[in-house]
């Protein structure tokens, strides 16, 4: 097949026949010579609001492919590369027990999926509940405020990404086909087919939970075992090599390969690992607030009035560097979504954002976060960033009396508690309460927000309006620690493989899943199954 890039079609003209017509022009052949074609990528060129284009990459099957390619010399036309994912050849060292994976978020799930496909019969441990039970537990928390510290927005089958927008975009290059493997696996188990080609693919919270359940069921058929409400609490090393692990402070099982896909909020696990000699370091991350604006306002600003009804809900990506060299940027933008209480520890409060697949909520929400570094944490302890998070989350809980503290932008600037809403009303999962967020954020972060938001208002009309809503605190953007690993992705203790976002090697569903695949590959290349 032939891959054709940079095919531009006005969105009001877009249809299969128009696509075929443009392909024939690009290849300089008759439409009759086109046997079939598929969309490989679709993006949007919205720089001119009176003329917005879809920009396509197509894979095309034609008559006389070799002859056509020999006559065309363009970097936008090439033979379609092989992007099929291939599991590596099995190593020679025999495993004495089944590989164990801690965590069933994207990293753990895909590490387990690849190992199951390769016949290693992995055991997946999850401290939280299966997806259906977890959803009920989370809904109960949002309604009553009663927190289950083991199963919540952060912990449970599917990981923290389950209660998000299900965004799958990533900037990681995919020469080995790992990203394509992630997307095709999701589609195989019920995700919309368009995630295979959209520039900004997403699944949505409502659909993602079904996809995860379907993946789990297939993995079980392939020989995997899932154990829920099962927390990894200790391990034993013999001659610098893992030999057994402890579950729920009581059960001991043999283990010589352990994948740590623990997620960015497994703070008790971080403490245990550090105390047992695993090499770890603190790392920069970002925190701030989550903001809500009318989605219609974002749509008009991004697309113009002419195209709003023809396009899906608009997203945005904003960045700014302050005079003091702090980065301020939007993160986890959720079109038509909700701000949610994402707490996982008693008397501490954190927020996140989520959207369903249709993104049909009234508001757009996004984290607006500011970079923080070890200099802000006060010491060089590997867990100092984690403690910094905890301190601010405790303040957020106290400020909102256990509810999400919120404030209007005008009142934030004037350093006073809000008393009423105007044209923007909150869309939230979990109870909320007016508060003064200047009492929550450190002074330097407040100053960074006040410097950045007016700049963002010049990029998106209305972004700095007085009545948009802020909620705190967005503190779980990424892991505050890195668990060190070598080129074979193994820690300083043989047999332990740090993996995914919690270990400091990913940022989002897709990159975490791809890192899980990488770790599975290293295990496969080194060991052969014990079965």
Task: Name the average pLDDT.
Answer: 95
**Helix fraction bin:** 25-40%
How many domains, as an integer? 3
Please state the structural category. alpha/beta
Question: CATH superfamily of the largest domain, called what?
Answer: FAD/NAD(P)-binding domain
Shape: globular
The CATH level-2 architecture of the largest domain is identified as 3-Layer(bba) Sandwich
Care to describe what's here?
- The chain is α/β, with parallel strands linked by helices and 531 residues long.
- It has 3 domains: 2-79, Alpha-Beta Plaits, CATH 3.30.70; 93-280 and 481-528, FAD/NAD(P)-binding domain, CATH 3.50.50.60; 284-474, no CATH class.
- It has helices at residues 16-27, 65-71, 106-117, 131-144, 178-188, 205-221, 267-275, 295-303, 374-377, 384-399, 409-413, 443-459, 509-526; strands at 2-10, 34-48, 51-62, 77-79, 93-94, 100-102, 123-125, 225-227, 232-238, 241-247, 251-254, 258-260, 280-282, 285-294, 319-321, 327-334, 338-341, 351-354, 363-372, 404-408, 428-429, 432-434, 469-474, 481-483, 496-498, 527-528.
- A 7-stranded mixed beta sheet has the order 15-16-19-14-23-20-22. It has a 5-stranded parallel beta sheet with strand order 8-7-6-12-25, covered by helices on one side. Strands 2-3-1-4 form a 4-stranded antiparallel beta sheet, with helices on one face.
- Strand 10 (241-247) and strand 11 form a beta hairpin.
- Helix 3 runs parallel beside helix 6 (205-221).
- The model has no long low-confidence stretch (mean pLDDT 95).
């Amino acid at each position: 097949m032939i891959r054709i890039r940079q095919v531009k079609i006005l969105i009001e003209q877009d249809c299969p026949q128009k696509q075929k017509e443009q392909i024939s022009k690009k290849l300089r052949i008759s439409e009759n010579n086109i046997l079939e074609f598929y969309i490989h990528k679709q993006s949007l060129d919205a720089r001119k609001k009176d003329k917005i284009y879809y920009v396509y990459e197509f894979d095309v099957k034609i008559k006389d492919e070799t002859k056509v390619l020999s006559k065309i010399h363009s970097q936008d036309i090439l033979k379609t590369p092989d992007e099929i994912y291939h599991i590596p050849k099995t190593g020679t060292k025999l495993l004495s027990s089944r590989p164990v994976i801690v965590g069933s978020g994207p990293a753990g799930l895909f590490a387990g999926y690849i190992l199951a496909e390769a016949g290693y019969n992995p055991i997946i441990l999850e401290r939280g509940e299966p997806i259906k039970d977890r959803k009920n537990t989370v809904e109960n928390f949002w309604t009553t405020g009663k927190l289950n510290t083991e199963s919540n927005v952060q912990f449970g089958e599917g990981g923290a990404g389950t209660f998000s927008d299900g965004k799958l975009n990533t900037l990681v290059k995919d020469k080995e086909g790992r990203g394509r493997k992630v997307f095709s696996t999701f589609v195989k188990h019920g995700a919309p087919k368009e995630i295979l080609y959209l520039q900004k693919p997403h699944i949505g919270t409502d659909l993602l939970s079904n996809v995860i359940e379907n993946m789990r069921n297939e993995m079980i058929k392939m020989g995997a075992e899932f154990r829920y409400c099962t927390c990894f609490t200790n391990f034993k090393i013999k001659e610098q090599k893992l030999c057994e692990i402890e579950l729920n402070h009581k059960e001991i099982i043999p283990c010589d390969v352990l994948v740590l896909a623990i997620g960015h909020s497994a703070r008790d696990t971080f403490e245990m690992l550090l105390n047992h000699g695993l090499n770890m370091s603190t790392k920069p991350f970002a925190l701030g607030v989550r903001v809500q604006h009318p989605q219609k306002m974002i749509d008009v600003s991004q697309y113009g009035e002419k195209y709003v009804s023809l396009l899906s809900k608009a997203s945005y990506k904003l960045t700014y560097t302050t005079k003091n060299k702090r980065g301020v940027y939007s993160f986890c933008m959720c079109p038509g979504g909700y701000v949610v209480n994402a707490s996982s520890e008693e008397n501490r409060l954190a927020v996140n954002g989520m959207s369903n697949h249709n993104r049909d909520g009234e508001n757009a929400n996004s984290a607006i976060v500011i970079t923080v570094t070890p200099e802000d944490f006060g010491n060089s302890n590997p867990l100092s960033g984690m403690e910094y998070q905890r301190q601010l989350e405790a303040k957020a809980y106290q400020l909102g009396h256990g509810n999400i503290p919120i404030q209007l932008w005008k009142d934030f600037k004037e350093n006073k508690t809000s008393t009423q809403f105007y044209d923007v009303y909150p869309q939230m999962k979990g109870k909320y309460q007016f508060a003064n967020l200047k009492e929550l954020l450190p002074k330097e972060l407040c100053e960074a927000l006040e410097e950045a938001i007016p700049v963002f208002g010049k990029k998106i009309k209305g972004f700095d309006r007085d009545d948009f809503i802020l909620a705190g605190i967005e503190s779980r953007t990424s892991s505050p620690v890195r668990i060190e690993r070598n080129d074979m992705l193994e820690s300083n203790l043989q047999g332990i493989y740090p993996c995914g976002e919690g270990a400091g090697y990913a940022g989002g569903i897709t990159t975490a899943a791809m890192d899980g695949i990488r770790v599975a590959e290293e295990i496969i290349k080194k060991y052969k199954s014990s079965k």
